[in-house]
Each structure stands twice: as C-alpha cells, then as structure tokens.
Design goal:
Elements (H helix, E strand, L loop, with lengths): L1 E3 L4 H9 L5 E3 L1 E2 L2 E2 L1 H11 L3 E4 L13 H14 L2 E5 L13 H4 L4 E6 L11 E4 L5 H12 L4 H13 L1 H23 L5 E2 L6 E5 L6 H10 L5 E2 L14 E5 L6 H17 L9
Parallel strand pairs: 1-2, 5-6, 6-7
Antiparallel strand pairs: 3-4, 7-8, 9-10, 10-12, 11-12
Bound molecules: pyridoxal-5'-phosphate.
Length: 277
C-alpha cells in the first residue's frame, strides 16, 4: 500500500497490522509527487494508495486539480486502487474534483462526522465502486465487530434532522476564529494552515528538532504531535515540523494561552530550553 512519508499514520499502522507492506512515495508542496508515484508503482506494484487530496493531515495541503488528474491517470496505468480520505473535505472550500470523480472505477472514499460535527458519535461512511460493496461490508464487520446501533442511529438522526449541518456551521465559525488567532500568534514564522481547518503544520526554526520541541511544549502545558507521529513506517525524511490542533480547548483563552507558549518557545529557540531532571 502506498503512503506519503507523512500521513494520517493510524491507517499506515493498521495496514502493517493486517500484514500488508508499505511503500513510501515522496510529496512536494502540491501533495503526492506523481513522478515518484509512477516510479514506485513500476518497481513495487502496490495494490492501493492512501491519499488525502483535500486537506492532507498533517501538512494541510490540498492537491490542485491537475495533480489529481495525473494521480488518477497513473493509478489507472498501474491498476492501483485509490483510497481517498475525505474526512476534512467538508470543512474546506476546495472545489477541485475528487479522485472519485476522476477515477470512479477505482476509488474508495471515506468520510464521516468526526471533524465537523462530533468526534464521539463515530459516524462515518465509505463510498466505493459497486463491485467492492459486499467485501467492504464483510471486512468492516469482521475487523470491528460492527458499529454500535445506538451510535449509528444517533448519527443518522443528526444528519436527517439537519442538526448535523447546524453544528457543522457553528464548528466552522469557531475554527475560523481560532485559525485567525493562530495566524496572529505565529506571524513571521512558517506554517501551513487553512482558515476552516483546525490544525497547523508548523515549521520549526533552527535549532529546534521536532521531538525536542514537543517535549518543551509538553513541559509548558501544551500537547502537540512531533513529525514522527505522522510517519508511515520508518521514513528517513526529516521535516523539522510539528502539528498542533486548535479544537481541543473549550475556550479561546486556553487557545490563546497555548499559542503564547508555542510563540515563546519559537522566539527563545532551543537555547532557552534544557531539561535538568
Ligand atoms: C485524515 C484523517 N482520516 C481519518 C481520521 C479518523 O477519523 P475518526 O475520528 O472518524 O475515526 C482522522 C482523525 O484524526 C483523520 O485525521
């Protein structure tokens, strides 16, 4: 299964758990690198590729249309099934076509309520080419034991009553406020973000390393993820970045306090941090 060097790594971990091998493909500032994808497909003959074309987690990149078209064409050429993770798709105003529109015969789309409505509801769905329908249902049942009925019923009610859309609208407004706070707090530093997306992919200035920055932030009361958290397999690539979420705190004051800690650590640099215990 093809993954980018940094990706939503829980999928990469479950891929490894189910005995599949992982093939890593390079990315650039527009997402998955088509030339490297072509090369890896020719060399390793992967069966699937996992992608997040709209709002990649953690890089926040949305692939432009021509890049998507190229990936779809290569998937067809090498007979690779595409897994299009669209969990953040509803939050973004991106109007590029989905991979599922460009290669409908070979794309499985996954999405759900967790990002824009409520993570605890566990309401999600897959949309797939018809021949995969039954296999996916069986695989889901065998791997998960099935979704608890009460959560499925709750998710369905939220959607059908219109309440999910109302919550989503409020969530997006709140996310916009928080990303604006982050933009102001991080002014002058290099980071990737999107106004409607509740996380930031922050580039660390010299001489911070990702893991050390995570420790320093943690000791100052801020929990964030270092880049290793997002590595599919044992990637040798180094990004000197961290990702942090803006959605966990209940109040703006807490978001502001966390951002101030991050800003102070960036300003002071690694020289201002040492562990003496
Ligand atoms: C890109 C991506 N896909 C899938 C998921 C899983 O979402 P859920 O909480 O619905 O399991 C996440 C959650 O962080 C994610 O970031």
């Amino acid at each position: 299964v093809v993954f980018e060097h940094v990706t939503y790594s829980q999928v990469a971990r479950s891929t490894a758990l189910s005995g599949r091998r992982i093939a890593l493909v390079n990315s650039d500032e527009q997402g998955l690198d088509p030339d490297d994808f072509d090369r890896i497909c020719a060399q390793k003959h992967p069966m699937m590729a996992f992608l997040m074309p709209t709002v990649h987690n953690p890089t926040c990149i949305s692939m432009p249309s021509d890049r998507r078209a190229r990936i779809a064409e290569l998937a067809r050429k090498h007979n690779v099934l595409l897994i299009e993770d669209d969990l953040y798709g509803r939050l973004s105003r991106d109007d590029a076509p989905m991979l599922a529109e460009l290669a409908p015969e070979r794309t499985i789309v996954g999405s759900g309520l967790s990002k824009s409505v409520a993570a605890g509801v566990r309401g999600g769905w897959l949309s797939c080419p018809p021949p995969y329908r039954h296999r996916i249902r069986v695989a889901h049942r065998l791997m998960s034991g099935g979704n608890p009925y009460i959560l499925s019923a709750l998710a369905a009610r939220l959607v059908h009553s219109g309440e999910a859309s109302a919550i989503e609208k409020r969530s997006i407004e709140e996310i916009r406020t928080r990303t604006a706070l982050a933009g102001a707090a991080l002014e002058g530093y290099d980071f990737n973000s999107q106004p409607d997306v509740p996380f930031i992919w922050l580039s660390l200035p010299e001489a911070w390393n990702s893991g050390t920055f995570k420790n320093a932030a943690f000791e100052n009361g801020v929990l964030l993820d270092d880049e290793d958290e997002f590595k599919a397999g044992r990637s040798g690539q180094v990004f000197h970045r961290v990702r942090f979420s803006l959605s966990q705190p209940s109040h703006h004051s807490e978001v502001t306090r966390g951002l101030a800690v991050i800003r102070r650590l960036l300003d002071e640099g690694r020289a201002g941090y040492e562990r003496f215990d």
